[in-house]
Write a structure and sequence with these properties.
single chain, Aminopeptidase, 13 strands, 36% strand
Length: 299
Amino acid sequence: MNSDKFVGCKMSYSTRFFTPEDFPKLHAAFLEAFADYSLNILMSREQFAVRFRDKLGLQETYSPGVFYQGRLVAFIFSAVAEYQGSLTAYNGGTGVIPEHRGQKLVDAMYDLMLPKLEADGVERCVLEVLTDNPKALRAYQRVGFEKGDFLRCFKLQELPTKYERTLENVDIHTKASPNWELYSQWSAAQATFQDQWSRLPGNPHEEILEATWQGQTAGVAVYQPHIGRISALAVAPECRGEGIGAALVDEMVKRAAQPNLTVINVREEAEGLRSFFARLNFANQINQYEMVYQLPGNR
C-alpha cells in the first residue's frame, strides 16, 4: 500500500491509496465534504455505491485519500480506462471536509497519485469542474490541469405537449441484448468519460430502450430510471428529424422514478444536441469545464 506523510500548517497528515475495506469510510467522508456544496448531492450509502462503485467503476488502487489522526479528511475517486484514444485516469469526485480546506490536500493526493499513474502507462488525467467554482479551478490548475471543453448540463422542466408521443408505428421497448456497436455509430456528439459507449454495458442500473420504426432499429436511449439521468441518446442518421428522439424522451419520462430527466456534460460544440434538448424544454442549469492533465512521461 503506497503511503506518504506531510505537514500542512502544523497539522500532520498521511496519504495512501484506498482498499476495498475503506468503502464505508468513503461514504462518511463524502457526506462531510459536500454538506455545504452549492448543489444537493447528498445520498444514502446505497445511492453512493450505485453512483461510485457501479456507475464510475471506482478503482481503489488509483484513488488516494488524506488522513488526519486516523480520520479520512480528503479523497479522490478515480477510474482508469481508454478515453478518446488514450489510457486515462478519470477523477469522478474530489472532496475535502471543511475544517481541512486550505491545506493543499488536493496537491498532496496528486503527488501520491501521478507517479503511480505514470508507472502504469496512464497518459493523461481528466476531470470535470463547475465553471462557478474558482477555488477548485485554481487547485486543479496548480496541479497542472488545463481547461478543455465547455460542458452544459440540462434538466427537463416539463415535456411540451406537442413533443409527447405523436409518431405512428414506432415501437419503444426495453432491450435485453443491446447492439452497442451499432449504437456507437450513431453518436451525434462525443460523450464524456463516464457516458462513453464502451463503459455503459457494465452498469446494472442502466436501462436500454430501443426504438424500431418502419421495420428497422431507429434509435436508442440509455438511462438510469431510479434518478432519471440520461446517459446516452442516439438516433440512426437516416431516421433523424422524424420524432424518434422525442418519442424516446417521452418514454423515459413515463418510466423514470424522477420524470424531470437530466442530462449532463453536453459539449458546447454539439449544437444539434443542445438545440434538441432546448426544444423539449430542458433547461441549462449548470455548466462545467472538462480539464486535462498530460502526464509528461507518457506523451
